[in-house]
Amino acid sequence: MYRFVALFWDGTLDTSNRHASLIAEKIGAMIPGVEKVLSDPNAAIFYASDDHSVFDCVTEGPLVVLGKAFTKNFGDGVVPEPATFTERSADEICLSHGHTLVQEFWGRYVAFGKNPVKGNWFAMRDPTGEIPCHMITVDGLTVLFSNMEDILKLGLTRFSVNWSYLINALRLPFRDNGQTGFNEVITLDVAESQIIEDGKPVSRICNWDVMQMAYENPITDVEEAVRLARSTLLGCIGALAGQHSHIQLKLSGGLDSSIVLAGLLHAPSRPEIECIHHYDAGIGADEREFARMAVAGACASSGRSCELVEFERQPHCSLEEILDFPRTARLLYCSGHLLHRDVGMGSALNDVATRFTGVGGDAVFLRFKGNGGAIDYAWRHGINPGLLRVALETAQAGDSFYGVMKDAIRYGVQKKPLTVNKRWGSPCDWLRIDAEQSEFQPAWLRHGLDNGIALSPSKITHISRMVFPTNILDPFEGARGWHGVSPISAQPVVELFARIPLYILMADAEDRTIARRAFAGLLPEPILSRKVKCYLDDHAVAVTQHHREFIKDMLVDGILAEKGYINRRLAKSGIQGICPDNASQVLGVFGPQLNVEVWLRKWSSSCADVGLVRN
Q: pTM above the 0.85 mark?
């Protein structure tokens, strides 16, 4: 469990001081386990944690870092150490409004600091955005927080539903776009400092130069990319593992989670590793052979052992419990949490506080197919003999050589706009929403474009997919004694793979080329050479069939249908017709639709309690 609340106000006004003092008293009385870690004439920061290996508090003068941060010391056999701050380094971080923290350290954290010269404050999430950080300004008081349920207890204001955010989420769900489900609450963008003066947010500064890194320092040698990928991945996994004595790993049998397993078993801290493998028997998605192979190979290369627990997925996963999750500021992947949880595995397994995953690997290592490699090459180098080689390699991913060259010239050489499909699964014909809105540009992208950094649209898409908001996978907003860790999404890994051109990432017509070669000798060859693996479509279909009446009740007779965003007749027949041979719409059901409907129902049922304005 972790949570934090930070208050900022104008300390020169008596009314602001009294208001802040009243709210601070409520925080101490109503939010369990919190302690004040910073007190200033115009600021106060509270935090609570039941596991300091996951969410710690480091203070140095006016700098407060909540979470975990590490140095950027990487190399063969080198594991970064936890960050420590001196008075001088803390002042440098505060003077730069957090820029120095992003450049010299990494981790999962939220940071606050007071500029010793200007006297203003900054608040910032790390570039991975693993820890939620929302903000509300009311009556001259700015409040930043991680958990919406905590804010409800303070009675700060009335809330109104942000329908634009919710409806856009039916098309593009689970994105950090600065909005929440309420008009009064925003969320801080990753690596962007919110500057606060006299208790009011006044400006924002992006502190992450990831586009500049990709543009100015590309890694075009395959062997160098392989060497750096190995040391960076092992370093990040080892650093994160070093905080825990016992770790669970969600092991699918695919390449990404197997890489995390190899890193954990080679970690110098030698934590106890327990692998959890979910399989589907009888529906073509049994991956147990590959999971066992990964464990055997990684154990052999490391000289260590680990436990493998196999768990059969069941369609009766109590989907109805989706209504029992806490109320949150943003849409979170509640349905996915129920689909993947370890029901029936016993208390010992579920009591382990930390679980590592391979989340992010497909995006970081470049699993997605298309003509991006040739487009990226043509954008950087124009038409030369090397383009023919890259186009031939790219064509082996599915398109014709002519199609690849056409795209390379059109989007790489001529630099015409390229539209990328970013939908969540196949669109459902029963949705009734307006035409697509313009895509939100994250802070790092706006920052790069404002500084004249011109990357290919395919490379920008790659970076966008790497910066995945993993906090959406925690439907409890940190207020539970379980935490997921995604080392492949760590800032140094993203920065490294941002510097590697797409045509290098798919060299020799092989997807995830660099990741495969980086872990040669640490994982068995059948794992490193896997091209495809089984997915959860069949399991999601089975769950849909088992809970068909519940899903129809939620979507056909729910708030979205009442508001006209779902066609009741088409939804009823569409949900009834979902089967293994017609599974294209399952992601749409389990991704955005159920979660939006559940979010609305939880808030609508408590309108009177929280002062929610139903509009």
A: yes
